[in-house]
Amino acid sequence: MTSSSASTTVSDSRTESPSAPSGMDWFLIAAIAGVIGACVNVLLFTPSELRQGLAQKIFYVHVPAAITGLYFSVIPMAIVSGLYLWLKDERLDRIAESLAEVALVFVAVVLCTGPFWGKPIWGTYWQWEARLTSTLFLSFVLIGYMVMRGAIEQPETRARLSAIIGIMAGCLVPFIHLTVYMFTTLHPMPVVLTPNFTKQNLSPEMLRSFLYSLSAFLLLFVAMARNRYRWATERDRLQVLEDQR
Amino acid sequence: MSPPRVVELSYTPPGFVRDALRVARKDLLIEFRTRSAFIAAAVFAVLSTAIFRFTWEQGRVSPLDLAPGVLWVIFTFSGILGLHRSFGVELADRALDAMMASPMSRESIFAGKALANLAFVCCVQALALPAVGLFFNLPAGQFWWGIAGVSLLAAIGLVAVGTLFAAITSNTRLAELLLPMLALPFFIPVVIPAAQVTSLLMNGRPFAETVDWIKLLAAFDIVFVAASTVAFPFTLEE
Amino acid sequence: MRIELVTFHERQDSAKAQVVDSTSATTGQAEPEFRTPQNAGYMHIAYIVAAVIYGSYLLILRRRWSSLRQRQNSAAPSRR
């Protein structure tokens, strides 16, 4: 069964245009350019916020990364994992694997840029607040997912068990958010500034910059995941060839 | 020639509860005979309590502030000690294949293992609760029943998820690392409400204040038990 | 998602008046710095950190592709 689906993917990657021998992924390059453009726009052409000063500009990187990494990765990953268990198509497993890895990168950015915004605004690098805690636990789950994938050698077993973790992660994340949200409302935190509170106070230019940033990071996510997926396809194709020898 | 006498073997038809209890009884018998995991968990519980007790500055921190956290740290990690064993024990002689070949449904195998783990965790909790109470000079009172109740409720959720992950990781290379690594993020939504309720009860708050947390805990239990039962058959190879 | 964020904001806004005073009381830290020049450093560090993380991942992707190409070339040179 594995070999027949592998031959399906071999013929698929022959009919679709493979990446050029020099390895240029123009979509990814365009996405990177878009993100750089968004950052330049934020740094040079967007007004600063009055109270927070320049540190508020971290918002334009931190929040899009959070929205992309949390909402646009975990839920698709859970859906794709469920589809894999139903359809047993190994391409779905590769999609889930790519989504998880790129999501981990974005979550790492969120966790690393957040404290630098928190320190000048909240006075502290970390708070056990709803979004931060959810993000931290999501990173644990994603790390566990990647470690487990590395620990299993048989492709079919690896795909099957990863799919279960993916689905459980998809069940888990909204619930973690709910728990910790309840936690902060039952025991209200004294410091209630969140990264999102400025959205209501955004001037039109800020809102425009934010939307530009958000779409740039979304595009970057899609481009990275696509690149990663194509690499995974080539890697598996090569693995089949090497096994046949 | 007379037909050969047919010996009636006692045959009980497969039934979910009966099979689950059968599997649970098998696991508990094995554990009872060797007692290895239980002793490990018990030693861990008592030792951690002692360590927390000796590092506790009695004047600075009230025992009612410290004890709930200590209790839940012990429950969580000693639970993990027992979980790995639940599928590790099947690896010898490929006993899991034999169970899969039997007419038992996969879900009843899961339920049986989860029940055995639940009994294990409850025994450890029964040991740890008095230990913490003694070490930290906690007052006696009605609230201990509440704490025992919430411990049982949380144990259900922990065991459901833990058994599933034990099944997933048992055959992998880094099983002893992977099980805590994967399971702990999923334990958090169970432990947070349970620890909150424990803390509220220990501090003498009325039961009405804990109801929201208990509802959340029960909701997680239902979700985790359902999701784990549905996901378990996929962990077994066809 | 958007609705949920707005609701969260409304809760925070009602408590906003207490924010500045309670911060130092709870965290025991110095008053948060709202002055503009000091916060530029944080912004620079954050952007650099983000660039390093994304850049490292892109480098990892690139290195994976090149090692894959090497393996492909050594495995089946006639196919290239």
Can you describe this structure?
The complex is a heterotrimer of chains A (245), B (238) and C (80). Chain A has 245 residues and is an all-alpha fold. Chain A is built from 8 helices and no strands. In chain A, helix 4 runs antiparallel to helix 7 (155-186) and helix 5 runs antiparallel to helix 8. Chain A starts with a helix and ends with a helix. The model of chain A is unreliable at 1-22 and 187-195 (pLDDT under 50). Chain B has 238 residues and is mainly α. Chain B has one domain (16-235). The longest helix of chain B has 30 residues, at 106-135. By secondary structure, chain C is mostly helical. Chain C has helices at residues 2-15, 19-27, 36-75. The two termini of chain C are 48 Å apart. The interface between A and C is large, with 58 and 53 residues.
Highlighted features:
heterotrimer, A: 245 residues, mainly alpha, 0% strand, globular, disordered N terminus, B: 238 residues, 78% helix, elongated
Give start-end ranges of low-pLDDT stretches of chain B.
none
Q: What share of residues of chain B is helical?
A: over 70%
Supply the number of structural domains of chain B.
Answer: 1
Question: Which chain pair has the greatest contact?
Answer: A-C, 58 and 53 residues
- How large a portion of the residues of chain C is in β-strands, by DSSP E? under 5%
- Rg of chain B, please? 20 Å
| Largest beta-sheet details of chain B | none
Strand content of chain B: under 5%
Order of helices and strands of chain B: HHHHHHHH
Rounded radius of gyration of chain C (Å) = 25 Å
In short:
The complex is a heterotrimer of chains A (245), B (238) and C (80). With 245 residues, chain A is mainly alpha-helical.
Give me the secondary-structure topology.
The complex is a heterotrimer of chains A (245), B (238) and C (80).
Chain A: H1 2-15, H2 26-45, H3 59-71, H4 74-87, H5 90-122, H6 130-151, H7 155-186, H8 204-244
Chain B: H1 16-34, H2 36-54, H3 63-88, H4 95-101, H5 106-135, H6 143-169, H7 175-202, H8 207-235
Helix pairs in contact in B: 1-5, 2-3, 2-5, 3-5, 3-6, 3-7, 5-6, 5-8, 6-7, 6-8, 7-8
Chain C: H1 2-15, H2 19-27, H3 36-75
